[in-house]
Design goal:
Blueprint lengths: L2 H13 L20 H12 L3 E7 L5 H14 L3 E5 L10 H12 L4 H12 L6 E5 L1 H7 L1 H11 L3 E4 L8 H9 L3 E3 L1 E2 L5 H10 L4 E4 L15 H9 L6 E4 L5 H7 L5 E4 L1 H9 L3 H19 L19
Parallel strand pairs: 1-2, 1-9, 2-3, 3-4, 4-5, 6-7, 7-8, 8-9
Helix pairs in contact: 1-11, 3-5, 3-13, 5-7, 7-8, 11-13, 12-13
Length: 315
């Protein structure tokens, strides 16, 4: 896409958006101390900057390699890092992350091992770290034990990709009791009523899936994405992160007009997959994040930095 094409697309998306650069805490966590995730989004808001949320499959090709990759991602400018817990039936994931999960499982990665990795990472970085997992591994560990271990390891939040809000009350209570954010997914197929429910159960940020289907790199963003973000804004003052198919600087530039963060996963794991060593993977992932973060800092991605004094989102 040419520079003029990017500008036209960005302007069109921005003109349809309801960007809200000043964030308030979700009602589910009112009165609780702000998490690292909430603090980071407030810092981004104050700087007028869009965030980059980086997804890394933990244990691909090993947990030691993942430690190097995550620390490199944090150093390169990732604002929040999702540690993907490998799972044998990753129905929401595209081929790149499926292969990463398969390699991690073959290498012996488990939820307990990922929690140990998180503990090691927390000793070296204060970047917000969250767990991205299917529900089964957490259920097998036991929700109370999982919540306690995740909090003590230094996690800031959890996204259970296949857990619906109607069945999330125990999970939600266990995590919030330990000061962990609960991030839920909204989709293009979500009704307004469902988006409202998802928003009520979410804290930290709301994760919107840009398109139906599985994760993976795409050439362009869906034309109806601004309308989805606008619908979600009606029900939450949380930051909105958009994922699934985000891989290029042009995507980030365009998203800067409508969302608060871009979630990048398959593009990063593809870089790791192509690398022949942990150091090479860390360097490649870091370079991709630098490029995306630079896109988030310029052009239409530069957000308004003048929230009103009421503490409520502008819009």
């Amino acid at each position: 896409m040419s520079e003029s094409g990017i500008s036209k697309s960005a302007a069109r998306f921005a003109s349809q958006s309801d960007a809200r650069p000043c964030y308030v805490t979700n009602s589910a966590r009112k009165g609780a101390p702000a998490t690292r995730i909430a603090r980071r989004f407030r810092e981004l808001s104050a700087a007028g900057e869009m965030g980059i949320v980086a997804y890394i499959t933990a244990g691909d090709p090993s947990l030691d390699a993942s430690e190097k990759i995550v620390l490199a991602a944090a150093e390169a400018g990732a604002d929040v890092i999702e540690l993907g817990v490998p799972f044998s039936d990753p129905v929401a994931d595209g081929p790149v992350i499926q292969r990463a999960s398969e390699r991690a499982l073959r290498g012996g990665a488990t939820l307990a091992g990922v929690l140990d990795l998180l503990r090691r990472l927390r000793a070296h970085t204060q970047v917000p770290l969250m767990l991205f997992s299917y529900f089964n591994p957490m259920l097998q560990m036991g929700l109370e034990k999982f919540a306690e271990d995740a909090a003590s390891a230094g996690a800031d939040g959890v996204l259970a990709t296949d857990l619906i809000v109607e069945e999330a009350s125990g999970y939600h209570a266990a995590l919030h009791a330990r000061g962990l954010d609960t991030i839920f997914l909204g989709a293009p197929t979500s009704t307004d009523e469902r988006l409202k429910q998802i928003a009520e159960f979410s804290s930290g940020f709301l994760y919107l899936i840009s398109r139906t289907g599985v994760t993976g790199e795409r050439d362009a963003l869906p034309e109806d994405l601004p309308a989805l973000v606008r619908r979600a804004r009606k029900f939450t003052a949380l930051p909105i992160a958009v994922g699934f198919g985000i891989s290029l600087p042009t995507h980030v530039t365009v998203l800067g007009g409508i969302a608060d963060a871009a979630v990048v996963g398959s593009a990063l794991m593809a870089e790791a997959e192509k690398s022949d060593s942990a150091d090479a993977a860390a360097a490649a992932v870091a370079e991709r994040i630098r490029v995306l973060k630079n896109a988030a800092r310029r052009g239409v991605s530069k957000r308004s930095t003048s929230p009103d004094s009421s503490g409520e989102p502008n819009g």
